[in-house]
Amino acid sequence: MSRRVGVVVFPGSNCEHDVVEAIEGLGGKGELIWHGARSLGDVDVVVLPGGFAHGDYLRPGAIARFSPIMEAVGAFAREGGPVLGICNGFQVLTEAGLLPGALQKNAGLKFVCDMADLEVMTTSSVLTSGATHGQVLRIPINHFEGNYTCDQVTLDELRAEDRIVLRYVDNPNGSMGDIAGICNETRNVVGLMPHPERASHHLLGSEDGSVLLAALVA
């Protein structure tokens, strides 16, 4: 039976259909969930996609974290449900307190849109369980505020607890510790700035994103 993947849609999301297409190409069943809903329904996985939730008018994710659906997302995560935040979704997860740290403007105040090489730092997460440690994946990035930051205590904890999921081989945005993605303590919530759904078909130039997304629908 196909795993049901709920993709939350905020006003300003623009990658939700890309995620659904990638998930369904891997055998899952994608389902769009409006941010104003108060229930996730009968889904097995939740994805917060990229885009500009609520126009990022305050700061990315700061308004979206108050959307009604986020209470259900938080409960789902606390119960051990797999939650993935991609780009703007990663920002929402940090604003909602489901992941530590914050995303700030890129170093040099430059928007970056390019391919990035990512090193898999751990296979112990809902996103990387199908990868191998040290594997390098080529996946697109597309962001202005993807510069991950946190205090030194948090960074030390992320390193000591093996919670840095992916790191940039060549840091494009100034992220502390070259961090491209992290997970929570129970390893079921993952946020990353790169877009695996945009690297899920050979016509897109890379299928490396499928290595990550396949873990969600396996």
Task: Note down, in words, how this protein is organized.
This protein is α/β, with parallel strands linked by helices and 218 residues long. The chain has a single domain, classed as 3-Layer(aba) Sandwich (Rossmann fold). Helices cover 21% and strands 26% of the residues. It contains five helices and eleven strands; from the N terminus they run βαββαβαββββαβββα. The protein has helices spanning 16-25, 69-78, 88-95, 152-160, 209-217; strands at 4-9, 29-34, 45-48, 83-86, 102-104, 112-120, 136-143, 147-149, 164-168, 179-183, 189-192. The strands form two sheets. The chain has a nine-stranded mixed sheet with strand order 2-1-3-4-11-10-9-6-7, with helices on both faces. Strand 1 (4-9), helix 1 and strand 2 (29-34) form a beta-alpha-beta unit. It is globular. The N and C termini lie close together (10 Å).
List the helices and strands and how they pair.
Layout lengths: L3 E6 L6 H10 L3 E6 L10 E4 L20 H10 L4 E4 L1 H8 L6 E3 L7 E9 L15 E8 L3 E3 L2 H9 L3 E5 L10 E5 L5 E4 L16 H9 L1
Parallel strand pairs: 1-2, 1-3, 3-4, 4-11
Antiparallel strand pairs: 5-8, 6-7, 6-9, 9-10, 10-11
